[in-house]
Amino acid sequence: MPGRPTTGTIAGFVLRTARESALLTQVAMAEALGVDLATVQGWESGRRPVANMKAMDLVGLRRRLAGLGAEAAIVAQLDAAMDADRIIGATLTGTEGPHPLAEWVHTRDTAHMLAWALTGARPPSLAPSPSPRRRGPTAASPLLPAQDRTMFFEQLRATAEAAPRNDPQGALLHRQALHLTSYDKIPEAVAWTAQALHARRDLLARRGWTPQWAEARSTATALARLGDPVPLLDFIERAIVDDDVGETANLNYWAYWLGGTRLPQSDDRFMRDRQLTGWDPVTLLRGLTNGLHRAPGYVDLYAHTLWALLTAHPWLPQASGLLIPDLAERTEHLLDGGGISERARRELTNVHYVLRDRT
């Protein structure tokens, strides 16, 4: 049996990455913060979780890191890292209260941190930076040991199956747990996840907004990740296109997912806010631009969302500066290639036409 898992590993790696972005050794950082070397080593290894610090001490640590020259974008990832640590810890060790996946709708930053620990894929927000010389071998990522990863996914599948789906928190837990199981690429696990997702295909047949809209979207995107883009294409046609609430929900969810709003949401009801309030359209446009890629199904979702965003906020090209030439180049590259649907091609053509007039 594996030993008790360390619950602060991901946040510890983010802290180490922040320290290295300031070109500090552990010794130099300990001296600058007025703590002993063992404290810094404990934070970075996860043996002394950063999340266990007193609130004011944690605030102070963030500010001192910035003052020492750490990259602000890396320091800002500490929250997502602590969220991911909490999700993994609760799944591996059990929890007396609600599971963290039932408490709030997690964001892309949290998902990237979880993927870092479960697959070793470094979050794009933590681009490699110069590092001070290290003594001896050090881990390259907070990747969980194989036994812990196996246990995590087994527990996650059990959590998804046991989650009640007749209340908002249970439905949220089921949706997010099942989506995370798609990170397990062992053939047997992929088959289990695909079967569980296909069992919910009835959700994808519903038109427009329904209380299960978010669950249907999650099902479709997870199936696309597993190599089946057809459900996502069907979802776009049936549950988003030409439905005012579906279009609203899509923009609201993307804005939340990509960090356009920092307000945590405890369930999926925020997606129905037809006033499109509480998030920054420029931040959403930047996130969509940076994430635009040719993956089957996903490119169609990106294309439609870009088109809908620019339709809802026609002033965006004038307010987005150097972002517009970048987006114009990316859309042109996609249009010059193949592998996108007629709808995606039509919508990207419209987007490119609008952008061309602004560049």
Task: Please provide a written account of the structure.
The structure is a single chain. By secondary structure, the protein is mainly alpha-helical. The chain is built from 18 helices and no strands. α15 crosses α18. The longest helix has 17 residues. It is globular. The model has no long low-confidence stretch (mean pLDDT 90).
Keywords:
359 residues; mainly alpha; 18 helices; globular
How are the SSEs placed, and which strands pair?
Layout: H1 9-21, H2 26-33, H3 37-45, H4 55-67, H5 72-75, H6 78-93, H7 108-119, H8 146-162, H9 168-181, H10 187-198, H11 213-225, H12 230-240, H13 244-257, H14 281-291, H15 298-312, H16 316-319, H17 323-336, H18 342-356
Helix pairs in contact: 1-3, 1-6, 2-3, 6-7, 8-9, 9-11, 11-12, 14-15, 14-17, 15-18, 17-18
- Share of helix, binned: 55-70%
Main beta sheet = none
Shape: globular
Order of helices and strands: HHHHHHHHHHHHHHHHHH
Query: Mean pLDDT score, rounded?
Result: 90
Rg measurement, Å: 21 Å
Q: What percentage of the residues does DSSP assign to strands (E)?
A: under 5%
Query: How many distinct beta strands?
Result: 0
Number of helices: 18
Q: Which residues sit in consecutive blocks of at least 5 with pLDDT less than 50?
A: none
* Subunit arrangement of the protein: single chain
Give the terminus-to-terminus CA distance: 60 Å
Structural class: mainly alpha
